[in-house]
Design brief:
Helix content: 40-55%
CATH architecture of the largest domain: Alpha Horseshoe
Radius of gyration: 19 Å
ANK repeats: 69-101, 102-134
Order of helices and strands: HHHHHHHHHHHHHH
Oligomer: single chain
Pfam families: Ank (PF00023), Ank_2 (PF12796)
Number of domains: 2
Keywords: ANK repeat, Repeat
Largest sheet: none
CATH superfamily of the largest domain: Ankyrin repeat-containing domain
Number of strands: 0
CATH topology of the largest domain: Serine Threonine Protein Phosphatase 5, Tetratricopeptide repeat
């Protein structure tokens, strides 16, 4: 019966999945198919099913269960550009730096796919941007190879901010008061295209008081192995 739940979620049949979940509480909520290719939670994250994710977590689904190739639910969400799912998994306390068998963290996958919003969410939640995968690549290396230079510039700016920061609190968790975006808005050495991209796409540049910075005014004035 648990396999039918996985099949329903994987096939995108959300209503059937909800009915199955509401009719029975599973004792093996993290069971996978014969290929170990993901739990129901994993596939809900692929599909972007927020309500299914809520129910599964309430029923005890593991946030860090792994597929045969070591991918966790947050890998699935990052690989499929599901920002709201990523935010919710972070809120529930998933491991941001878990590695696949290839050594890829969720941030590696977001950089490989070229998803800047996912990258920013992970960074502000405290993801480690200096972890090497099995090819000895850190996330910014992958973004560079793939040609996602805005992401490269953003990560380079973040590294410089952390390096130069006088506040140890900013080192512990970059999401506190949106410290990264706060510093990005205040640092004149951050590449202009980083400002332009993040403001153009309204990805939430904030200052530490939680108010938006008018960056444009300020500037005027002065099927691959990574698939999960």
């Amino acid at each position: 019966m648990a396999f039918s739940l996985i099949d329903a979620v994987r096939c995108g049949d959300k209503e059937t999945a909800k009915k199955i979940l509401m009719n029975k509480k599973y004792t093996a909520i993290d069971i996978q198919g014969s290929k170990n290719d993901g739990t129901a939670l994993f596939w809900a994250c692929c599909r972007g099913f927020l309500d299914i994710l809520h129910i599964l977590v309430i029923q005890g689904a593991s946030l860090n269960s792994k597929t045969a190739w070591g991918a966790t639910p947050i890998h699935a969400a990052c690989d499929n550009n599901q920002p709201e799912i990523v935010r919710l998994l972070i809120k529930y306390g998933c491991d941001l730096n878990e590695k696949t068998e290839s050594g890829d963290t969720p941030l590696h996958l977001a950089c490989y796919r070229g998803f800047p919003e996912i990258v920013q969410i992970l960074i502000e939640a405290g993801a480690n941007f200096n972890i090497f995968n099995s090819k000895h690549q850190i996330p910014s290396d992958i973004a560079y190879v793939q040609g996602y230079y805005t992401i490269v510039n953003y990560l380079q700016a973040v590294k410089q901010i952390v390096k130069n920061s006088s506040s140890k609190a900013k080192h512990r968790r970059l999401s506190d008061h949106n410290c990264v975006t706060c510093c990005l808005s205040q640092d004149p050495n951050v590449p202009r295209e980083v400002y332009e991209y993040w403001t153009r796409n309204d990805l939430g540049l904030q200052n530490c008081s939680g108010k938006e910075n008018n960056l444009s005014n300020q500037q005027n004035k002065s099927t691959h192995h990574r698939n999960v």
